[in-house]
């Protein structure tokens, strides 16, 4: 209808939880294919037998790697809970893709199944101001790989500093 507003999304309801933020966790199977994100990733990983879990890739709080690493590159690797590694760009882009799909599904449900034109959507990814320019560029690359912007509509993807976005939100309120 155009007047619908989604002010708050809650995560984990299918697991008996109701939180405003999802844990930054992602799970890939033994073939290095994306499996689950957020609470779903945590629950699935915890349900695996120890021998099976050794062959899967579970990452948590991996966004901190962009802050703690002095040299962020598109070829860097991330270490899973069991010590196995995957390309960081793959981990970040799959996470952003999952969040994108969740947002689109939420919008569709709130608008009574009206399909929105993705080219009309502007995506804003917030990052800490203390992240390096290389980390910001890395997030941009991961977002592009996740399908949040194409070459033709790259102005629809904004990488913004968390405190600037918070300040604008406070002004809006």
UniProtKB/TrEMBL annotation:
Signal peptide: none annotated. The gene is HSPA12B_1. It comes from Aptenodytes patagonicus (King penguin). It comes from the Eukaryota. Keywords: Stress response. The keyword Ribonucleoprotein does not apply. This is Heat shock 70 kDa protein 12B.
């Amino acid at each position: 209808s155009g007047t619908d507003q989604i002010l708050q999304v809650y995560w984990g309801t299918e697991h008996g939880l109701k939180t405003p933020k999802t844990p930054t966790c992602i799970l890939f199977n033994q073939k290095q294919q994306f499996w689950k994100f957020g609470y779903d990733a945590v629950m699935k990983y915890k349900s695996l037998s120890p021998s099976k879990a050794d062959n899967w890739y579970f990452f948590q709080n991996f966004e901190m790697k962009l802050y703690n690493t002095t040299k962020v590159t598109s070829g860097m690797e991330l270490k899973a809970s069991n010590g196995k590694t995957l390309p960081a760009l793959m981990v970040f882009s799959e996470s952003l893709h999952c969040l994108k799909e969740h947002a689109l599904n939420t919008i569709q449900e709130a608008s009574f199944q009206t399909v929105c034109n993705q080219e009309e959507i502007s995506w804003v990814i917030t990052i800490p101001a203390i992240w390096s320019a290389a980390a910001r560029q890395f997030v941009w690359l991961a977002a592009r790989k996740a399908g949040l912007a194409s070459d033709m509509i790259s102005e629809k993807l904004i990488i913004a500093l968390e405190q600037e976005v918070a300040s604008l939100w406070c002004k809006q309120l």
